[in-house]
Amino acid sequence: MGEILDRVSREIENLRDEMVETLVELIKIPAISPDYGGEGEYDKAQKLLEMIKDWPFDKVEVYNAPDGRAKNGVRPSILAYYYGEKGEKSERLWILTHLDVVPPGDLSRWTVTEPFKPLVKDGKVYGRGSEDNGQSLVSSLYAVKAMMNLGIRPKRTVVLAFVSDEETGSHYGVEWLIKNHPELFKKEDLVLVPDGGNEDGTFVEVAEKSILWFKVRVKGKQVHASMPHKGLNAHRVALDLAYHLDRLLHEKYPTRNELFEPPESTFEPTMVKNPANSPNIAPGEHEVVFDCRVLPNYSLDEILEDVGRLTEEVKEKYRKEIDGKILPEIEIEVLQRLDAPAPTDPNSEIVVLLKDALRKLRGKDAKVGGIGGGTFAAFFRKLGIPAVVWATLDEMAHQPDEYAKIDNMVEDAKVMAALALL
User: Fold this and answer.
1) pLDDT tens digits for 53-101?
2) What region holds the Peptidase M20 dimerisation domain (predicted)?
3) pLDDT of 116-128, one tens digit each?
């Protein structure tokens, strides 16, 4: 098998220029969620289907999640199968990448090129979506194409999944596929999500923290700052509540788990907003947002109960009747919630295979750990399917002047091929 892997690796090297051309063509097509004001992934999916139409995949399927906001009313996901040596009975390796990208952000901060005008320079491909997730998408394609070119059937069937809506929650992507087409997935499947990692490819993510974003919205009564007794300063109420929430959550949920970096749960106040546009206005409204990344052993329901209980205490502390109305009013809105499933077993087949491949191809021992972010590996872990998140990345995702290193794209394709072959 070592000789076959060597042949496939050399073929991937031969395909380097074609890989760059493919990435460049895909970056040119914005695939921005309607949640961000974009048209979705339809055009990019069509381009990808056109690119692979003559490749000898055994089966290519398109699943369209309905979304009236998107171009042609759909959010497409593509599944491309290349069967293993036992045909449809072969064990299956899923490699899942996403078609969508985040918006460019402040265009003035893009100094190398414009977001959707890709530029190849100094061994890198610049452009929005180059690293997140174009690099790994192309790696997965050419891991398979190299085997196709050589007429090699891998040990495992490779299922390349190119899905929509990863950046805004996967409601029209992986989550929709799992909910509407559960027959696609099997407990014995192996799953790689190449959408996170580090710069030398030595980090294998097997666990995620739960994610909870919530907004505290306080309503008081706006007044001139020289006459505060005539109103209720929502800013003061919100500051008090935010301070005590921050303190309570850190004190009540202090457990550390060295699998993660950082090893403890985090509770970060991030965004604030109120309508005061002058120093002499005591605002009648104030909002503050918390971003919580919680170790999987804690319950998000319990945390929300704590938030609600403290909110009632603060309301009572500042209780005031103005014009027949009891103030303050305080609302808690959950902006995003993802309850982390149990981690992938560090001794599961996909983890062992990946560590073995990295040792063989790079001579490096990978570290297994957890992250504070969320990926769609979590959806598979909830099904009891072992999933890992891994790639070799400079962590340029969502940044201005985002780029993908060409060497990373090529070398990761070799590792993906190894997972199918070993």
Assistant:
1) 999 999 999 999 999 999 999 999 999 999 999 999 999 999 999 999 9
2) 206-318
3) 999 999 999 999 9
Q: Three-state secondary structure along 85-130?
A: CCECCCCEEEEEEECCECCCCCHHHCCCCCCCCCEEECCEEECCCH
Regarding whether 387 and 318 lie in a shared domain, the answer is no
- For 350, the domain range is 2-208+340-421
166 plus 86 within the same structural domain? yes
Pairing between strand 367-371 and 203-208? parallel
The pair of structure tokens assigned to 15 is: 């395909």
Which residues, given as ranges, of the chain have pLDDT below 50? Answer: none
Total domains, the chain: 2
Catalytic residues: 100, 166
Q: Please give the Cα distance from 78 to 40 (Å, whole number).
A: 14
Task: Based on the fold, state whether residues 21 and 145 are members of the same structural domain.
Answer: yes
Residue 94: which of 161, 9, 34, 181 has the closest Cα?
Answer: 161
In angstroms, rounded to a whole number, what is the distance separating the alpha carbons of residues 164 and 217? 32
Q: Please, what is the average pLDDT of the chain?
A: 96
Residues 194, 240 within the same domain? no
Q: Is-contact 255 295, C-beta < 8 A?
A: yes
**Residues 349 and 325 reside in one and the same domain:** no
Same domain, 39 and 151: yes
In whole angstroms, what separates CA 176 from the centre of its chain?
A: 16
- Tell me which amino acid residue 98 is: H
Q: What's the predicted TM-score (pTM) here?
A: 0.86
Distance, C-alpha 56 to centroid of its chain: 30
The closest alpha carbon to 95, from 206, 193, 204, belongs to 193
Lateral strand order in the sheet of 387-389: 59-66, 74-82, 157-163, 92-98, 190-193, 387-389, 203-208, 367-371
